[in-house]
Amino acid sequence: MNAKILICDDEQEILDITRLILEDEGFDVTSVLDSLSVEKLIEREKPDILLIDLWMPGISGDQIVRNLRRNVLLSDLPVVVISASRDGKEIALACGADDFLEKPYDINALIDTVSKHLVR
Amino acid sequence: MDDFLSQLPNIDHTDIRLFAAAVNASSNGVVITNNLLPDQPIIYCNQAFVKLTGYQRDEIIGHNCRFLQSDDRDQKARGLIRDAMDRGEHCQVEIRNYKKSGDMFWNELMISPVANHVGMVTHFIGIQNDITRRKTAENDLANEKQYLEERVVERTQDLQESEAYLASIIETIRESLVVLDENMKVLSVNEHFCKFFKLNESEIIGRELFSLGGNGQWDIPELKDLLLNILPHNNPFEGFDLENDFPKIGRKLLVLNARQVMLKGKYQDRILLAIEDITERREIEQRKEDFISIASHEMKTPLTSIKGNIQLLERKAQRNNDADYIVGFAKTSKSIARLERLIYDLLDVSKIQSGKIEFHYTKFDFDQLVAEAVSGVQVTTQTHKLSITGASQTEILADYGRLEQVLINLLNNAVKYSPLADEVKIHISKVADYVKVSITDAGLGIHLRDQKRIFERFYRAEKITEKFPGVGIGLYVSSQIVKEHKGTLWVESEEGKGSEFNFTIPVNNYK
User: Fold this and answer.
1) Residue B137 burial (CB < 10 Å; 0-12/13-18/19+)?
2) What ranges in B199-278 are assigned the alpha helix state H?
3) Under a CB-based contact definition with an 8 Å cutoff, are residues B64 and B35 in contact?
4) Rounded to the nearest 10 degrees, what angle do helices A107-119 and A12-24 cross at?
5) pLDDT-derived band at B346, boundaries 50, 70, 90
6) How far is CA A98 from CA A77, A79, A120, B442, in A?
């Protein structure tokens, strides 16, 4: 069975291209625009990895990651923050994410990063 | 003398002779005129009169006294003499008279009538005293006094003018100014102060600065600290930032300069306080930063989509071995990379300008950093071979990402500005307690005139502007990054032969 990836970003075009790239690699991708529904979706879809933006209306990416890390059932979920913010790396690591990719990302870097965290 | 005596009534000649001798010996000039003869001729003059006037006795006797007047006939004193003589009275005047030589002398003249037994004035006795020296001294004194008075008027006018001039300068300044005494009482303020803080002069002058306006709005701990604690040890003090909420004008961001007058004298210990309002400027700066930050963030979203799609298509083209597409996508990727760098550089310039660029220092192997940057740039060029020689074998404490940015910028420039060459040489070394990189190309080179200026923001060397696109911020950002690391970035170049960009970073970079 293919690994399941959940992507959350408030920009549809980011969701579209990320999904295209990852599906081309054979992953099973679910995407969501509304950050407020991410936590419910994780519980329902049980993804193997979460790719998430930082600055979003509703609830910010780092807040979601903090919530996940406090949740016993989801604290192990690999999370990669993908953000246009240059300070994103610090914010991502501080909130408990496993990795960080800066937009605009390189597709090889995206694929490598996702693969790296799925193996562990 | 004998003639004169012979004319006198027949009394005791011995006494008369004595009197006559005394008169003749007097140092004052003495003349006697006969009032009964026509035109009142002089009938006697003594030696002193002869000496005083320079006329001989025979030029004097028989003449009216007016010969002493020369042409100077309109003196007020003359009228006084005439009136007194008409009335047969005594008079004393100071009059300008003239010697035979024509020289003027001041004559203090006393005229006394002599009457006969029936009261008829028969003679006048004139006593002359040369007071020229006294008069000259008096005149000099008067002149000096007048001169001094004129100077005082002049100086006063000067002072008034310069005071008005200074006052107009102070009133024109678009900054608030306050003068305080050493007890923080306000002595004066300029108009701008009243306008800006919306206070009347009557609510200000004579009050303690910290009590101005009521409500404790000027009771600002930072201001007290500046004036009472900091200024006494750091006089003058410039650029003190102060943020305070003033009820009438709202929250203001102020920059203060304070200076206590040290000059001995009446103004000693007074405190001058200049207050500049930078609230609006800060807001504009903040808005500009926010704009650049938001704009570049917004640009990154479509760029992510473009880059992702192109790279995905490039991948598919490679899979299908579609040569035409591969070349096209490679070119597009290059453009995307340039656009990406441009966005980063713009963001960096904005951050450098506002001092908000952040550095994250970690320890890492410098040679490895160079190797990674070189291989990163190598994959983007098919025309140039990038080769590294030398090594530093040193770990440094620096911002990895930022130094990588400098290296990539310099390497890209080396490739870009040597279109006809096929090689870029990179040399790493350790020099004393610095690591050093030299990046050498065999390109266009840089004119001496441009060599210093290329590190300025938005500067571009003259000749490259048309052939090579760019905005001129890469080297500016790079030099700022190297500077932040306390290293130096410089260029050695000869036009037409190529350029060598070098930078050094201290090994022990502890901030």
Assistant:
1) exposed
2) 221-224
3) no
4) 70
5) confident
6) 9, 5, 11, 44
| Minimal Cβ distance to A14: which of B297, B304, B316 | B304
Eight-state DSSP code of residue B182: T
Separation between Cα atoms, residue B214 and residue B201, nearest integer Å: 14
Contact A18, A27 (CB under 8 A): no
**B230 contacts: CB under 8 Å, gap ≥ 6:** B237, B240
3-state secondary structure of B306: helix
Contacts of B356 (CB under 8 A, 6+ apart): B289
Residue in A86, A106, A108, A114 to test binding to B, most B beta-carbons within 10 Å: A86
Give the residue from B289, B294, B301, B481 with the most A CB atoms within 10 Å of its CB, the best one to mutate: B301
Residues of chain B with C-beta less than 8 angstroms from the C-beta of A11? 301
Beta bridge partners of B277: B254
Looking at residue A13, what is its pLDDT? 92
DSSP-based three-state secondary structure for B492: strand
The nearest CA of chain A is from the CA of B317 a distance in Å of 13
Segments in B61-220 forming alpha helices (H): 76-87, 132-172, 191-197
Give ipTM to 2 decimals.
0.91
Alpha helices in B354-468, H assignment, sequence order:
366-378, 400-416, 448-451, 464-467
Looking at the predicted structure, is the pLDDT value of residue B511 above 80? no
In this structure, are residues B465 and B428 in contact, taking their beta carbons and an 8 Å threshold? no
Summarised one tens digit per residue, pLDDT across range B134-164 is 988 998 999 999 999 999 999 999 999 988 8
What amino acid occupies position B457?
A: R
Q: Are the beta carbons of A17 and B358 separated by less than 8 Å?
A: no
Amino acid at B120: M
Contacts of A10 (CB under 8 A, 6+ apart): A33, A35, A53, A55, A56, A57
**CB within 8 Å of B135: residues ≥ 6 apart:** B94, B106
Question: Measured between alpha carbons, how far is B246 from B371 in angstroms, rounded to an integer?
Answer: 58
Closest CA relative to residue B430, chosen from B328, B507, B511 = B507
The whole-angstrom separation of Cα B293 and Cα B347 is: 6
